[in-house]
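WARN no homologs supplied; continuing
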Amino acid sequence: MPTRVHEFAWPDRVVIGTIGLPGARTFYLQVRAGKQIVSIAMEKQQSALLAEKIDEILDQLITVGGNPFSVPTGTPIELVDNDPLEPVQEQFRTGAISLGWDPTTAQVVIEAYPISELDDEDDDALDLDDASDREMLLVRMPVGTARAFAKRTREVVGAGRPLCPLCGNPMDAEGHVCPSPGF
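OK structure emitted
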């Protein structure tokens, strides 16, 4: 069965958002173009790493001598998006993510694939022709949108539970048992 590709070449919106309370949030990468909306679940760490790597790519492009691309160092004000997620219908839970740069369109490219439900033990017996419901998300976004995406993602990730000043672990509203010695 061919892979179903949810492709967004110039999305109207691409954001990370959450549903739930801090400590029990589900992170979503949501992309919209016109009436088409795709939401994929991600781990908090995946979201944070994606923002970090996007900023790294953009920062490297700024330093390239003779770079023909105008890469913003900050988030263009007109691209700030603090709106909540649109209604979420989860397409899949993200496993592997790849990130790249397309110099022909001056866009950051994100590819996201679902978590494989196959056991590692079954890999030798895997027949790809029998695999069902394969899909992926392919998002291409211009540099300004990518910078805004990374900024919002860092803010969303950072809006979780406060960290314990002694051990650095997240604290629940009820507090927590600090594993730091002597406390």
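Confidence is low (pLDDT under 50) at residues 118-132.
OK
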